Each structure stands twice: as C-alpha cells, then as structure tokens.
TrEMBL record:
SMART domains: CoA_trans (SM00882). The keyword Transferase applies. GO terms for molecular function: transferase activity. It comes from the Bacteria. Belongs to the 3-oxoacid CoA-transferase subunit A family. This is CoA transferase subunit A. Keywords: Transferase. The keyword Nucleotidyltransferase does not apply. PROSITE patterns: COA_TRANSF_1. InterPro entries: 3-oxoacid_CoA-transf_A, CoA_trans_fam_I, CoA_transf_BS, NagB/RpiA_transferase-like. It comes from Aromatoleum evansii (Azoarcus evansii). NCBIfam families: pcaI_scoA_fam.
Length: 233
C-alpha cells in the first residue's frame, strides 16, 4: 500500500492544489487549525480559492495569511469578527462572503461527508439567511432547505494519527475538524504524533483512515492566543 505520510506540507499539497478550488479548513478561532498546511497552501500561490471554515483566523495567523496574499476569492464562514483585513475586504467588495450560522455550517459539512445533498433546518427562518432559499412547513413549523458542503481539499489538524490515517483529536481541537475531514475529496491531516498502524485503540479513533489520504507531522505546533486575558494587579 502506498504511504500516506509526506515529509512536509509543500510535498503533500504540490500535486493536488489548483487555482479555483474549494478548500475546507478545520479549526475554531486559532484552536485546532492546521497551521503548517495553511502555510503550505499560501506558499503554493494557488488563487481564486473558495474557503470553507468556521472563521478566517486573525491578521497574520491562520487563514489570515491567505487573505493577506489575496488568494481567497470567497469565504464560507460563521464567525469573522477578529480579522481586520477580512472586514476591509468584505466592506470594499473585494471578498465574496457567505455567512452561515455555526450549527448550520457544521451540519452542511457533516451532511456533505455523509452523501446527503441537503437538509431542512429552522435556523435562519425569517432572517437574511433565508433569502433565496426554499422554505417548507413541516408539522406546523417553517424550515429552510440548506444545501450540503463538500470540498476539493480538506485540511485538518489532529493530535495523533497512525500510518493508515486514523485520527485522534485532542480536547477543544476536536471542533470542526471531524466534519471537515469527511467532506473533502482529498483530506490532508496535520498531526503532532505519528504511531504505527494498530497502535491506536479503535474505540478512541475519531476519524477513520478511509477519509484521510495524506498526513504531515508537525510535532511542535504554535499555540497562539486569540484574546489574551490576564488578571489585573
């Protein structure tokens, strides 16, 4: 069997990243982001990307790097409040943005990974989110039809993987990563620790290796703090 393990992000992305692709990226704020892979995507110079992610990082960190280089044409996101460059591009009309309620975004990715093309939800009924969407009454309540999301490439961050691509996430980093991992046609995982196949307890595996095509190891990831709060003296 061909190895899924690549030496670095550039090598893992080199023959799969193209202009105009849709890329789904795991993480929540700066927690659980595949930082090495985001750097690799930036260095690939791929442009006109549609990026699906809960948020767009912050200025100079995470997906904020791709905003700075103008590689993102469209963002599908839930929360974007900590990124000044994102705000500037949005208000100037340079960046197309599809704001999506957070739970709806998670379900759109989960459903896409499960092969479900669309689903009904009450979230967003009667708001701007409902514009242009099909609505339906079910049991006396109004629902919106939401289309699922899939991606050409999914970039995720896990704590541990085996060589077969089975992934284990750690604590809060198990946020959007599992649903992003299943929604990608090609999923590349950045992990802190790589172990031999058969080492992981099957009951502890969060993403089965069948969803993961490539792995890169980043044993010492940066731990950025989005909002530093300290006690006043």
């Amino acid at each position: 069997m061909m190895s899924k393990v690549f030496t670095d992000a550039a090598t893992a992305l080199a023959d799969v990243v193209q202009d105009g692709q849709t890329v789904a990226v795991g993480g929540f704020g700066l927690c659980g982001i595949p930082e090495m892979l985001i750097h690799g995507l930036r260095d690939s110079k791929a442009k006109d990307l549609t990026v699906i992610s809960n948020n767009a990082g912050v200025d100079g960190v995470g997906l904020g790097l791709l905003l700075a280089t103008r590689q993102i044409r469209k963002m599908v996101a839930s929360y974007v409040g900590e990124n000044a460059e994102f705000e500037r591009q949005l208000l100037s009309g340079e960046l197309e943005v599809e704001l999506t309620p957070q739970g709806t975004l998670a379900e759109k990715l989960r459903a896409g990974g499960a092969g479900i093309p669309a689903f009904y939800t009450r979230t967003g009924v009667g708001t701007l989110v409902a514009e242009g969407k099909e609505e339906r009454d079910i049991d006396g309540k109004r629902y919106l039809l939401e289309r699922s999301l899939t991606a050409d490439i999914a970039l995720v961050k896990a704590w541990k993987a085996d060589r077969a691509g089975n992934l284990v996430y750690r604590k809060t980093a198990r946020n959007f990563n599992p649903v992003v991992a299943t929604a990608g046609r090609i999923t590349v995982a950045e992990v802190e620790e790589l172990v031999d196949t058969g080492t992981l307890d099957p009951d502890h595996i969060h993403t089965p290796g069948v969803f993961v095509q490539r792995i890169v190891v980043n044993p010492r990831p940066a731990k950025h703090i989005e909002q530093r709060t300290t006690r006043q003296e």
